[in-house]
Specification:
Order of helices and strands: EHEHEHEHEEHEHEHEEEHEHH
Strand content: 15-25%
CATH topology of the largest domain: Rossmann fold
Number of domains: 2
Low-confidence stretches: none
CATH architecture of the largest domain: 3-Layer(aba) Sandwich
Structural class: alpha/beta
CATH class of the largest domain: Alpha Beta
Largest sheet: 6 strands, mixed
Number of strands: 12
Number of helices: 10
Helix content: 25-40%
Mean pLDDT: 95
């Protein structure tokens, strides 16, 4: 039986903004587990050597921007959903000493969107507009596959990435060349890092229809400019905090085989 990890890390660049350490450490304390969780800022050129060292330690953890696809390539064993998404955000060392990867972002997206619809059933024929085409965007598309008769359109500054992502998921996902074409979206999702470090917004919510909802995977104190603008327009909107908590709780279950106290995690994340 695989020994539970004693060291947990978040790999990203940057990671100073992350609330994952306080959230996970609160959950670990509540569960009486002695492991500790820390954030490591790892530049792309140092990613491979860092992962090799962590694997030797028997560590486990999460991955955030811009390393989710790098970790996918580094893992020897992948869950079916990680293979579908083509990105890993949760990893651990298996019994054979090799890296195993999963993607709990998909479950996090699904939970956050259901909350955005007030925990009611997600309506059929939802038009989903996605900004971005990286690992986080792929998690959004994978979640949308389970929503009844949903369709997805994807805009990315590099059109080739949007087209490649859509090809993996089939006809229900289509690339577009102009973000303004997302103005009729019922659910607009920002899956880029825009707004993480400044007051930039990736889309003008004035273009959306009155019943649209806005979901920004970015989270920051005081909410992002995109979410605030949506609220000012009277639209239902949320940042990535609910997704952060749920994907973290699912990762905790992968590492330790028990569910964490989600309420404790949420309080720690909100106070971060």
């Amino acid at each position: 039986m695989r020994r539970p990890p004693e060291r947990l890390v978040l790999l990203g660049h940057p990671v100073a903004h992350s609330r994952s350490p306080q959230m996970h450490n609160a959950a670990l304390a509540a569960a009486g587990i002695s492991a500790r969780y820390e954030a490591l800022d790892v530049a792309p050129e140092r990613f491979h050597s860092t992962v090799v060292d962590l694997a030797r330690e028997g560590a486990a953890g999460n991955v955030t921007i811009p390393h989710k696809e790098r970790m996918y390539a580094a893992c020897s064993t992948l869950s079916p959903i990680a293979r579908r998404v083509g990105a890993v955000n949760t990893w651990w060392v298996g019994d054979d000493g090799a890296l195993s990867g999963d993607n709990t972002d998909v479950g996090g997206v699904d939970e956050a969107v259901r909350r955005l619809f007030d925990d009611a059933a997600i309506p059929p024929n939802l038009k989903v507009g996605v900004l971005g085409a990286g690992g986080s965007a792929a998690a959004v598309v994978a979640a949308a596959e389970s929503w009844p008769s949903a369709t997805v359109r994807i805009y990315n500054r590099t059109g080739a990435r949007a087209r490649a992502l859509c090809e993996r998921f089939g006809a229900f996902a289509q690339p577009i060349d102009d973000a303004r074409a997302l103005s009729d979206a019922d659910l607009l999702v920002n899956a880029t890092s825009i707004g993480m470090r400044d007051e930039a917004a990736p889309f003008d919510v004035a273009a959306l229809h009155d019943g649209a909802r806005v979901f920004d995977l970015v989270y920051r104190r005081g909410e992002t400019r995109l979410v605030r603008a949506a609220h000012a327009r009277g639209l239902a909107a949320a940042d990535g905090l609910a997704m952060l908590v749920e994907q973290a709780a699912l990762a905790f279950e992968r590492w330790f085989g028990v569910a964490p106290d989600r309420a404790t995690m949420r309080r720690a994340a909100e106070s971060g």
